[in-house]
Specification:
The chain has 348 residues and is mainly alpha-helical. The chain contains 17 helices and two strands.
Protein backbone atom coordinates (compact mmCIF):
# COMPACT_ATOMS: atom_id res chain seq x y z
CA UNK A 1 0.00 0.00 0.00
CA UNK A 2 2.85 2.35 0.84
CA UNK A 3 4.49 1.51 -2.43
CA UNK A 4 1.31 2.39 -4.32
CA UNK A 5 1.02 5.71 -2.52
CA UNK A 6 4.60 6.48 -3.27
CA UNK A 7 4.11 5.71 -6.90
CA UNK A 8 1.03 7.96 -7.10
CA UNK A 9 2.83 10.83 -5.40
CA UNK A 10 5.70 10.52 -7.78
CA UNK A 11 3.34 10.58 -10.76
CA UNK A 12 1.53 13.62 -9.44
CA UNK A 13 4.81 15.51 -8.96
CA UNK A 14 5.50 18.16 -11.64
CA UNK A 15 7.63 16.99 -14.50
CA UNK A 16 10.83 19.05 -14.54
CA UNK A 17 13.06 19.27 -17.56
CA UNK A 18 16.52 18.69 -16.19
CA UNK A 19 19.67 19.52 -18.09
CA UNK A 20 23.29 19.22 -17.16
CA UNK A 21 24.53 22.36 -15.48
CA UNK A 22 27.02 23.97 -17.80
CA UNK A 23 28.75 25.79 -14.98
CA UNK A 24 29.90 22.42 -13.66
CA UNK A 25 32.28 21.62 -16.52
CA UNK A 26 34.22 18.44 -16.96
CA UNK A 27 37.48 20.18 -16.16
CA UNK A 28 36.17 21.37 -12.79
CA UNK A 29 34.87 17.90 -11.97
CA UNK A 30 38.11 16.27 -13.05
CA UNK A 31 40.09 18.66 -10.92
CA UNK A 32 37.91 17.92 -7.89
CA UNK A 33 37.79 14.17 -8.35
CA UNK A 34 41.26 12.86 -9.23
CA UNK A 35 41.94 13.84 -12.81
CA UNK A 36 42.38 10.99 -15.25
CA UNK A 37 40.16 8.47 -13.49
CA UNK A 38 36.65 7.37 -14.28
CA UNK A 39 34.37 9.47 -12.12
CA UNK A 40 30.98 7.90 -12.70
CA UNK A 41 30.70 6.86 -9.09
CA UNK A 42 32.17 10.16 -7.89
CA UNK A 43 29.64 12.22 -9.84
CA UNK A 44 26.82 10.15 -8.52
CA UNK A 45 27.63 11.43 -5.09
CA UNK A 46 27.34 15.11 -6.10
CA UNK A 47 24.31 17.08 -4.90
CA UNK A 48 21.46 17.32 -7.36
CA UNK A 49 21.76 21.13 -7.58
CA UNK A 50 25.25 20.80 -9.03
CA UNK A 51 24.27 18.27 -11.66
CA UNK A 52 20.94 19.63 -12.89
CA UNK A 53 19.12 22.93 -13.29
CA UNK A 54 15.72 24.01 -14.55
CA UNK A 55 15.52 24.74 -18.30
CA UNK A 56 13.63 28.00 -18.68
CA UNK A 57 11.45 28.63 -21.73
CA UNK A 58 12.22 31.78 -23.74
CA UNK A 59 10.08 32.68 -26.75
CA UNK A 60 12.94 34.52 -28.49
CA UNK A 61 15.24 31.50 -28.19
CA UNK A 62 12.49 29.27 -29.52
CA UNK A 63 12.10 31.50 -32.57
CA UNK A 64 15.82 31.25 -33.30
CA UNK A 65 15.39 27.56 -34.07
CA UNK A 66 14.33 28.53 -37.60
CA UNK A 67 16.49 31.64 -37.80
CA UNK A 68 18.24 32.35 -41.10
CA UNK A 69 21.13 34.65 -41.85
CA UNK A 70 19.54 35.66 -45.17
CA UNK A 71 19.11 39.39 -45.69
CA UNK A 72 17.24 40.64 -48.76
CA UNK A 73 19.09 43.93 -49.13
CA UNK A 74 22.46 42.34 -48.39
CA UNK A 75 21.76 39.86 -51.17
CA UNK A 76 20.68 42.70 -53.47
CA UNK A 77 23.90 44.57 -52.83
CA UNK A 78 26.00 41.44 -53.38
CA UNK A 79 24.32 40.70 -56.71
CA UNK A 80 24.67 44.30 -57.84
CA UNK A 81 28.41 44.35 -57.14
CA UNK A 82 28.82 41.44 -59.54
CA UNK A 83 27.83 43.76 -62.40
CA UNK A 84 31.18 45.47 -62.91
CA UNK A 85 30.01 47.77 -65.71
CA UNK A 86 27.08 49.03 -63.64
CA UNK A 87 29.30 49.63 -60.62
CA UNK A 88 31.79 51.61 -62.70
CA UNK A 89 29.06 53.72 -64.30
CA UNK A 90 27.45 54.43 -60.93
CA UNK A 91 30.80 55.70 -59.67
CA UNK A 92 31.12 57.83 -62.81
CA UNK A 93 27.73 59.42 -62.15
CA UNK A 94 28.55 60.10 -58.49
CA UNK A 95 31.86 61.66 -59.51
CA UNK A 96 30.08 63.72 -62.18
CA UNK A 97 27.52 65.06 -59.71
CA UNK A 98 30.17 65.89 -57.09
CA UNK A 99 32.27 67.64 -59.73
CA UNK A 100 29.37 69.99 -60.54
CA UNK A 101 30.01 71.56 -57.11
CA UNK A 102 33.79 71.52 -57.48
CA UNK A 103 33.84 72.94 -61.02
CA UNK A 104 32.55 76.31 -59.86
CA UNK A 105 35.30 76.56 -57.26
CA UNK A 106 38.17 75.66 -59.57
CA UNK A 107 36.83 77.68 -62.51
CA UNK A 108 38.02 81.20 -63.20
CA UNK A 109 34.58 82.75 -63.56
CA UNK A 110 31.47 82.75 -61.39
CA UNK A 111 28.31 81.68 -63.18
CA UNK A 112 26.30 84.35 -61.35
CA UNK A 113 28.67 87.18 -62.32
CA UNK A 114 29.31 86.54 -65.99
CA UNK A 115 29.80 89.63 -68.13
CA UNK A 116 28.65 90.02 -71.70
CA UNK A 117 31.62 90.82 -73.92
CA UNK A 118 30.96 90.83 -77.64
CA UNK A 119 34.69 90.90 -78.37
CA UNK A 120 34.97 87.38 -76.88
CA UNK A 121 32.07 85.85 -78.79
CA UNK A 122 32.56 82.20 -79.84
CA UNK A 123 36.07 81.92 -78.43
CA UNK A 124 37.31 78.35 -78.90
CA UNK A 125 38.35 76.36 -75.81
CA UNK A 126 41.75 77.51 -74.55
CA UNK A 127 43.77 77.94 -71.36
CA UNK A 128 41.66 80.92 -70.28
CA UNK A 129 38.24 79.60 -71.27
CA UNK A 130 38.35 75.83 -70.83
CA UNK A 131 35.06 75.22 -72.66
CA UNK A 132 35.24 78.39 -74.76
CA UNK A 133 32.64 81.15 -74.72
CA UNK A 134 29.08 81.39 -75.95
CA UNK A 135 27.41 83.80 -78.38
CA UNK A 136 27.62 86.60 -75.77
CA UNK A 137 31.24 86.08 -74.85
CA UNK A 138 30.47 84.45 -71.48
CA UNK A 139 32.51 81.63 -70.00
CA UNK A 140 31.02 78.31 -71.06
CA UNK A 141 32.72 76.12 -68.42
CA UNK A 142 30.78 77.59 -65.49
CA UNK A 143 27.52 77.49 -67.42
CA UNK A 144 27.85 73.83 -68.41
CA UNK A 145 28.57 72.54 -64.92
CA UNK A 146 25.94 74.68 -63.22
CA UNK A 147 23.42 73.56 -65.85
CA UNK A 148 24.39 69.91 -65.22
CA UNK A 149 23.74 70.27 -61.49
CA UNK A 150 20.38 71.96 -62.13
CA UNK A 151 19.26 69.31 -64.62
CA UNK A 152 20.29 66.40 -62.36
CA UNK A 153 18.48 67.83 -59.34
CA UNK A 154 15.40 68.60 -61.41
CA UNK A 155 15.41 65.16 -63.07
CA UNK A 156 15.85 63.26 -59.78
CA UNK A 157 13.15 65.30 -58.01
CA UNK A 158 10.63 64.96 -60.83
CA UNK A 159 11.37 61.25 -61.33
CA UNK A 160 10.96 60.49 -57.62
CA UNK A 161 7.68 62.41 -57.57
CA UNK A 162 6.38 60.52 -60.61
CA UNK A 163 7.40 57.13 -59.21
CA UNK A 164 5.96 57.76 -55.74
CA UNK A 165 2.66 59.03 -57.16
CA UNK A 166 2.51 56.22 -59.72
CA UNK A 167 3.24 53.47 -57.18
CA UNK A 168 0.68 54.72 -54.64
CA UNK A 169 -2.05 55.19 -57.25
CA UNK A 170 -1.18 51.89 -58.93
CA UNK A 171 -1.40 49.94 -55.67
CA UNK A 172 -4.84 51.32 -54.84
CA UNK A 173 -5.95 51.06 -58.46
CA UNK A 174 -5.02 47.40 -58.74
CA UNK A 175 -6.27 46.24 -55.34
CA UNK A 176 -9.55 48.11 -54.87
CA UNK A 177 -11.72 46.91 -57.71
CA UNK A 178 -14.41 49.52 -57.06
CA UNK A 179 -11.98 52.25 -58.11
CA UNK A 180 -10.90 50.52 -61.31
CA UNK A 181 -13.40 52.31 -63.56
CA UNK A 182 -12.59 55.71 -62.02
CA UNK A 183 -8.84 55.38 -62.52
CA UNK A 184 -9.31 54.02 -66.03
CA UNK A 185 -11.41 57.05 -66.94
CA UNK A 186 -8.80 59.38 -65.47
CA UNK A 187 -6.03 57.51 -67.26
CA UNK A 188 -7.80 57.71 -70.63
CA UNK A 189 -8.62 61.39 -70.13
CA UNK A 190 -4.98 62.33 -69.57
CA UNK A 191 -3.31 59.80 -71.86
CA UNK A 192 -5.42 60.39 -74.97
CA UNK A 193 -4.43 64.07 -75.13
CA UNK A 194 -0.76 64.83 -75.89
CA UNK A 195 1.03 65.91 -72.73
CA UNK A 196 2.69 68.79 -74.54
CA UNK A 197 -0.75 70.44 -74.88
CA UNK A 198 -1.23 70.35 -71.09
CA UNK A 199 2.28 71.69 -70.55
CA UNK A 200 1.71 74.51 -73.02
CA UNK A 201 -1.53 75.57 -71.33
CA UNK A 202 0.09 75.47 -67.89
CA UNK A 203 3.09 77.50 -69.09
CA UNK A 204 0.81 80.15 -70.58
CA UNK A 205 -1.61 80.37 -67.63
CA UNK A 206 0.60 79.75 -64.59
CA UNK A 207 4.10 80.56 -65.77
CA UNK A 208 7.27 78.92 -67.04
CA UNK A 209 9.22 78.68 -63.79
CA UNK A 210 11.17 75.53 -62.98
CA UNK A 211 8.94 74.78 -59.98
CA UNK A 212 5.68 75.04 -61.92
CA UNK A 213 6.91 72.97 -64.84
CA UNK A 214 8.45 70.37 -62.50
CA UNK A 215 5.17 69.91 -60.63
CA UNK A 216 3.36 69.71 -63.96
CA UNK A 217 5.69 66.96 -65.17
CA UNK A 218 4.91 65.01 -62.00
CA UNK A 219 1.16 65.57 -62.41
CA UNK A 220 1.16 64.06 -65.90
CA UNK A 221 4.08 61.64 -65.62
CA UNK A 222 2.71 59.06 -63.20
CA UNK A 223 0.44 57.36 -65.74
CA UNK A 224 2.83 54.72 -67.12
CA UNK A 225 4.08 53.70 -63.68
CA UNK A 226 0.59 53.49 -62.22
CA UNK A 227 -0.67 51.36 -65.11
CA UNK A 228 2.30 48.99 -64.81
CA UNK A 229 1.92 48.65 -61.03
CA UNK A 230 -1.82 48.12 -61.38
CA UNK A 231 -1.29 45.17 -63.75
CA UNK A 232 1.24 43.60 -61.38
CA UNK A 233 -1.01 44.04 -58.36
CA UNK A 234 -3.74 42.14 -60.23
CA UNK A 235 -1.35 39.18 -60.34
CA UNK A 236 -0.74 39.15 -56.58
CA UNK A 237 -3.94 40.41 -54.94
CA UNK A 238 -5.71 37.00 -54.94
CA UNK A 239 -2.76 34.88 -53.84
CA UNK A 240 -3.40 32.57 -50.89
CA UNK A 241 -1.49 34.64 -48.36
CA UNK A 242 -3.43 37.79 -49.30
CA UNK A 243 -6.74 35.96 -49.01
CA UNK A 244 -5.67 34.72 -45.58
CA UNK A 245 -4.68 38.25 -44.56
CA UNK A 246 -8.09 39.56 -45.55
CA UNK A 247 -9.82 36.80 -43.61
CA UNK A 248 -7.79 37.75 -40.53
CA UNK A 249 -8.90 41.35 -40.86
CA UNK A 250 -5.56 42.79 -41.96
CA UNK A 251 -5.84 46.42 -43.01
CA UNK A 252 -5.64 47.42 -46.65
CA UNK A 253 -2.52 49.53 -46.20
CA UNK A 254 -0.66 46.70 -44.46
CA UNK A 255 -1.54 44.22 -47.21
CA UNK A 256 -0.33 46.65 -49.86
CA UNK A 257 2.88 47.61 -48.06
CA UNK A 258 3.87 44.21 -46.63
CA UNK A 259 2.39 41.58 -48.94
CA UNK A 260 2.43 43.16 -52.40
CA UNK A 261 4.92 46.05 -52.52
CA UNK A 262 8.08 43.90 -51.96
CA UNK A 263 7.32 42.01 -55.19
CA UNK A 264 7.33 45.28 -57.13
CA UNK A 265 10.70 46.65 -55.98
CA UNK A 266 12.66 45.50 -59.03
CA UNK A 267 10.12 47.01 -61.44
CA UNK A 268 10.00 50.29 -59.51
CA UNK A 269 13.80 50.61 -59.42
CA UNK A 270 14.00 50.03 -63.17
CA UNK A 271 11.33 52.63 -63.93
CA UNK A 272 13.02 55.15 -61.66
CA UNK A 273 16.40 54.64 -63.32
CA UNK A 274 14.89 55.10 -66.78
CA UNK A 275 12.75 58.07 -65.71
CA UNK A 276 15.74 60.25 -64.79
CA UNK A 277 17.31 60.48 -68.28
CA UNK A 278 13.81 60.66 -69.79
CA UNK A 279 13.06 63.69 -67.61
CA UNK A 280 16.26 65.41 -68.75
CA UNK A 281 15.30 64.74 -72.37
CA UNK A 282 11.76 66.02 -71.75
CA UNK A 283 13.11 69.13 -70.05
CA UNK A 284 15.31 69.68 -73.09
CA UNK A 285 12.25 69.41 -75.34
CA UNK A 286 10.25 71.88 -73.26
CA UNK A 287 13.15 74.33 -73.28
CA UNK A 288 13.58 73.90 -77.02
CA UNK A 289 9.89 74.81 -77.47
CA UNK A 290 10.25 77.83 -75.18
CA UNK A 291 8.10 76.42 -72.36
CA UNK A 292 10.77 76.59 -69.65
CA UNK A 293 12.25 79.58 -67.90
CA UNK A 294 15.65 80.32 -69.47
CA UNK A 295 16.90 82.49 -66.60
CA UNK A 296 18.27 79.40 -64.78
CA UNK A 297 20.88 77.52 -66.85
CA UNK A 298 20.13 73.88 -67.55
CA UNK A 299 21.35 71.34 -70.07
CA UNK A 300 18.15 71.78 -72.05
CA UNK A 301 18.70 75.54 -72.30
CA UNK A 302 22.30 75.10 -73.41
CA UNK A 303 21.27 72.61 -76.09
CA UNK A 304 18.50 74.93 -77.22
CA UNK A 305 20.86 77.88 -77.52
CA UNK A 306 23.51 75.84 -79.33
CA UNK A 307 21.27 74.51 -82.08
CA UNK A 308 21.76 77.63 -84.22
CA UNK A 309 25.55 77.62 -83.97
CA UNK A 310 26.35 73.93 -84.06
CA UNK A 311 27.77 73.82 -87.60
CA UNK A 312 30.15 76.72 -87.02
CA UNK A 313 30.89 76.22 -83.32
CA UNK A 314 30.29 72.55 -82.51
CA UNK A 315 31.79 72.72 -79.00
CA UNK A 316 28.68 74.60 -77.82
CA UNK A 317 26.65 71.43 -78.42
CA UNK A 318 29.28 68.75 -77.80
CA UNK A 319 29.89 69.48 -74.11
CA UNK A 320 26.26 69.48 -72.85
CA UNK A 321 25.29 66.66 -75.24
CA UNK A 322 28.16 64.50 -73.95
CA UNK A 323 27.04 65.00 -70.34
CA UNK A 324 23.42 64.13 -71.22
CA UNK A 325 24.67 60.98 -72.98
CA UNK A 326 26.76 59.95 -69.96
CA UNK A 327 23.78 60.38 -67.62
CA UNK A 328 21.49 58.42 -69.93
CA UNK A 329 23.90 55.49 -70.37
CA UNK A 330 24.71 55.47 -66.66
CA UNK A 331 21.13 55.17 -65.49
CA UNK A 332 20.27 52.65 -68.16
CA UNK A 333 23.06 50.26 -67.09
CA UNK A 334 22.69 50.88 -63.37
CA UNK A 335 18.90 50.63 -63.51
CA UNK A 336 18.91 47.29 -65.32
CA UNK A 337 21.60 45.85 -63.06
CA UNK A 338 19.91 47.00 -59.86
CA UNK A 339 16.53 45.79 -61.08
CA UNK A 340 17.96 42.31 -61.69
CA UNK A 341 19.62 42.38 -58.27
CA UNK A 342 16.30 43.26 -56.61
CA UNK A 343 14.52 40.29 -58.18
CA UNK A 344 14.30 37.58 -55.45
CA UNK A 345 14.51 34.88 -58.14
CA UNK A 346 18.12 35.89 -58.74
CA UNK A 347 19.05 35.40 -55.08
CA UNK A 348 20.71 32.18 -53.95
Amino acid sequence: MDMNKKTVSELEAPVVDLTINRSMTDSNIDKKYNRGRVHVHSRSTLPEKQLFSYAEYRAQDAERIGYSQYSYWRSVWRNFLRKKAAVVMSLVFVALFIFTFIAGAIGKYDVFNLRIDNSLMFTAPNAEYWFGTDNMGRDYWSQVWYATRTSILLAVSVSLGQIIAGVLIGLVWGYVRKLDSFFFSLYNLIDNIPTIIYMTLIALMLGKTTLIMGVSMIAFGWLATARNVRNLVFMYRDREYNLASRCLGTSLWRILSKNIFPYLVSVIILRLALAIPSTIAYETTLTYLGLMDISTPSLGILLRNARSYFLDYPYLLIFPAAIVSIITITFYLVGNAFSDACDPRNHV
